[in-house]
Write a structure and sequence with these properties.
The structure holds two protein chains of two kinds. Chain A is 77% helix and 0% strand. Chain A is an all-alpha fold. Chain A folds into two domains: 12-50, no CATH class; 61-267, MetI-like fold (Orthogonal Bundle), CATH 1.10.3720.10. Chain B has helices at 2-8, 13-23, 25-56, 73-78, 81-115, 118-133, 136-147, 152-159, 163-171, 184-208, 212-220, 225-254, 258-261, 269-277, 283-306, and strands at 58-59, 66-67. In chain B, helix 3 (25-56) packs across helix 15, helix 12 packs antiparallel against helix 15 (283-306) and helix 14 packs antiparallel against helix 15. Chain B contains 15 helices and two strands. Chain B is mostly helical. The radius of gyration of chain B is 27 Å and the shape is flat. Classes of the chains: A mainly alpha, B mainly alpha.
């Protein structure tokens, strides 16, 4: 009998679900505050509920929409670059053993293993040393670098799970390398790449630490949010934007989860 | 004859390329690796080199320009009292946060690995993964709402007639402050909240790999469940704990936003780096300061590697 069916002690059950509550109550609170009629303080419980602030954010705040649009553009380009580079690296490292392989995978992981501030200040010093002015592309350069590893991880997990005999069968049946890639390998990889791409998109969409060093005067959505955190201008609008961000990031995360469920369980 | 003629006929270019790559795996791997390595090499390693180089340069006090002369002035500045305090404060916070995350993560990771299955397990997994990937700033913002003087925590404590407890905590030396959102205690709680999922998932993965038969054998040999956990399961989960600690430790060391939004005015490493490169425009000193977390993390990674943490990544 598998022990997963064993009943947990009440103490264990309570502490597990307490942690879940600890992780989620604050998010639920944000949603509640977006409907609060109070606009001067964070008073709890909200005195009255209203939809008014959604209308204000929608109609009167072009700065919010510009920031959202810039973040979407940056995320799209970074994800595109990361998809290409991450897939190539995964193809090279998934089922091979060679000298320097560990060093290469460490190098790929480094941008997210080291604190974001290191990546940020490094890029900032490189731009200042080379005299590169801040632009849309200086943001994308930084984001793509740490997005590669997300795509890489997903693609490597899938390639390791895929059976190599399928590739051999394809070759035995007369397909050349490119046909095998097109008709056998890529279809197997597709959903892992989609998941990796979605996660990379979500990561880029709300990255702030590296971005503050590489954006100059440009305002992505997280930088807008950070400015509001430090110096609130119109608190209810910030609450509404927070809910929009939650909604926009939950969708790709959930989709990625459903696309790679099998990899997760296969890995165990 | 005809077979020979067929062999001699030139094969299409595509097939020749395909064959060449199939025969020479090394060439194929090399070709696949060139673009990502060029990118990571040029952008990332190049930038890290620029960072290292800058840490030896200095800022001219009169012109405000970076002078490209090699010197150790920045590192000498790091050893001054205020900067040493910053480093100690940040490392202490990172260690305490990591410890708290381990304590909170162990029961839920064990529950997920051993006592949950099917839908409940998927639900728990999602409940941990969603916060891990969702917006860091929004989650930080949530705590600004929660910890505010007029916010939910004060309200709940007042309803429970426990406000005195909060006041006692805030009056305490070191951790206290004049309200929760302006105290080191608040900074600590927010760090734990933000990084906890990074600790739960690797520990859970490590627990999953502990064979059920070991647990049963320990029980059959008469060990109390607590003894089984501490003497059989826990040692096997150490790599997962180390892997999670790398995340929580490194994330806390490099963060400069949380202590600026929630906390008193004492500085963390990240804030000094950010201030030096931004307002002060002193990229060389910022670069030298940012080498401190790299050094601390290298030390930490070395320790973690000895515990076998990388097998669980």
């Amino acid at each position: 009998m598998r022990s997963s069916a064993a009943p947990a002690s009440p103490w264990l059950r309570v502490s597990a679900w307490t942690v879940v509550a600890f992780l989620h109550v604050p998010l639920a609170l944000i949603v509640l505050y977006a409907f609060s009629a109070e606009d001067q303080s964070y008073v709890f419980p909200p005195p009255e509920l209203t939809l008014r602030w959604f209308a204000v954010a929608w109609n009167d705040r072009p700065d919010v929409w510009r920031a959202i649009w810039l973040s979407l553009e940056v995320a799209a380009y970074s994800t595109g670059i990361a998809l290409v580079l991450g897939t190539l690296a995964a193809g090279a490292l998934a089922r091979t053993q060679f000298f320097g392989r560990e060093a290469i995978s460490l190098l790929l992981i480094l941008p997210i293993a080291l604190p974001g501030i290191i990546t940020g200040i490094s890029l900032r010093s490189a731009y200042s040393t080379l005299g590169i002015p801040f632009s849309f592309w200086t943001i994308v350069l930084g984001h793509a670098t740490f997005c590669v590893v997300v795509v890489f991880n997903n693609a490597v997990a899938r390639l390791r799970r895929a059976s190599p005999s399928l590739i051999e069968a394809s070759m035995d049946l007369g397909a050349d390398g490119f046909q095998t890639l097109r008709h056998v390998i890529l279809p197997q990889l597709a959903s892992a790449l989609l998941a990796g791409g979605l996660l990379a998109f979500a990561l880029s969409f709300d990255e702030v630490i590296v971005t503050t060093f590489t954006a100059g005067q440009q305002t992505t959505l997280p930088i807008w949010m950070l400015a509001e955190l430090v110096r609130p201008r119109q608190r209810p609008v910030t609450n509404v934007v927070a809910v929009i961000i939650i909604a926009l990031t939950f969708v790709p995360i959930l989709a990625a989860y459903y696309l790679t469920r099998a990899d997760e369980h296969g890995a165990r | 004859m005809s077979a020979l003629a067929l062999d001699a006929a030139p094969r299409p270019l595509r097939l020749r390329v395909s064959d060449a790559l199939y025969r020479r795996r090394a060439l194929l791997i090399l070709l696949l690796l060139v673009p990502p390595m060029l990118w990571v090499g040029a952008v990332y390693v190049g930038s890290l080199t620029a960072l290292l180089a800058n840490s030896f340069f200095r800022l001219d006090d009169f012109t405000g320009q970076v002078v490209r002369e090699v010197g150790f002035g920045n590192f000498a500045a790091l050893l001054q009292g205020a900067n040493v305090d910053v480093v100690l404060r940040t490392v202490t916070m990172a260690l305490v946060v990591t410890g708290a995350c381990i304590v909170l993560a162990l029961p839920i990771a064990w529950y997920m690995a051993r006592h949950a299955s099917g839908t409940r397990k998927a639900l728990l997994y999602l409940a941990i993964m969603l916060p891990l990937w969702s917006s860091y700033l929004v989650r930080l913002y949530a705590w600004k709402l929660l910890l505010a003087k007029e916010g939910a925590i004060s309200w709940v404590l007042a309803k429970l007639h426990l406000s005195w407890l909060l006041e006692a905590l805030l009056a305490a030396p070191v951790v206290g402050g004049h309200s929760l959102s302006f105290s080191p205690l608040g900074t600590f709680v927010v760090f734990v909240y933000l990084w906890l999922p990074f600790m739960i998932l690797p520990i859970q993965a490590a627990f999953e790999r502990v064979p059920a038969s070991l647990v049963e054998a320990s029980g059959d040999l008469g060990a109390h469940p607590a003894a089984t956990f501490w003497r059989v399961v826990f040692p096997l989960a150490v790599p997962g704990i180390a892997a999670g600690s790398i995340f929580t430790f490194s994330l806390t060391l490099g963060d400069y936003i949380v202590p600026g939004v929630i906390g008193d005015s004492s500085m963390f490493i990240g804030q000094v780096v950010s201030l030096q490169q931004g307002t002060a425009g002193n990229v060389p000193l910022a670069a030298a300061m940012s080498l401190v977390p790299i050094a601390v993390i290298a030390l930490f990674l070395w320790g973690a590697k000895r515990l076998g943490a990388f097998d669980a990544l």
